[in-house]
Design a protein that fits this description.
Blueprint (H helix, E strand, L loop, with lengths): L19 H11 L12 E6 L1 E8 L3 E8 L8 E2 L3 E9 L1 E5 L5 E5 L3 E4 L6 E5 L4 E9 L10 E2 L18 E7 L1
Antiparallel strand pairs: 1-12, 2-3, 3-10, 4-11, 5-8, 5-10, 6-7, 6-9
Length: 175
């Protein structure tokens, strides 16, 4: 019986996506149906801003390592056709709902957000927050694209509307 697993190539640290379009294109290129996808949880940490490191994808699931500088945040939004979960690997995050709900979670804690759930979050504390984000299609034909603001209009993940600031990197790494 032959093995479907192959030796991993010597790997450098994965690069972060430079934009939302870059993130989506990279995830699309990682789809390799019927074969395992191996990845490493490693990311350069930001001093300011945030990063997304696309790790692996199938047609219905995608995994991204996200980093946020201390006090980094995003805006209230929902993903109408994607269920997703966050697991904090470093730091702390304060998650907020549309009606003032708030829950702070830390290392080895997470949250599951069914499609259509409005939320926003921010890093809290002194150290950068590192999150593992796992998303999947909640509806037939859904993809990893699709974010809306509370007004129901599309909101790009790397937009000023989503509180994106200029990214400034440190020499420090997670992983």
């Amino acid at each position: 019986m032959s093995s479907v697993l192959t030796k991993a190539k010597a790997s450098k640290a994965p690069d972060f996506a430079r934009s939302s379009d870059d993130l989506h294109q990279t995830l699309d290129s990682q789809v390799n149906e019927g074969k395992p996808s191996f990845f490493r949880l490693k990311a350069q940490l930001p001093k300011q801003g945030r990063t997304n490191v696309p790790l692996a994808a199938s047609k219905k699931m995608w995994i991204v390592l996200k980093t946020y500088a201390a006090d980094g945040e995003n805006e209230l939004h929902a993903h109408p056709s994607e269920d997703h979960a966050f697991v904090i690997l470093q730091g702390k995050g304060s998650f907020h709902g549309p009606n003032g709900e708030e829950k702070t979670i830390g290392k080895n804690e997470g949250v599951l957000l069914p499609h259509g759930t409005f939320y926003w979050f921010k890093a809290v504390g002194e150290e950068p927050m590192v999150l593992l984000r796992i998303g999947c299609s909640a509806l037939d034909g859904a993809t990893h694209r699709g974010r809306i603001g509370i007004d129901g209009k599309p909101m790009a993940g790397d937009s000023a509307e989503n509180k994106t600031v200029k990214r400034v990197m440190t020499d420090e790494w997670f992983g």
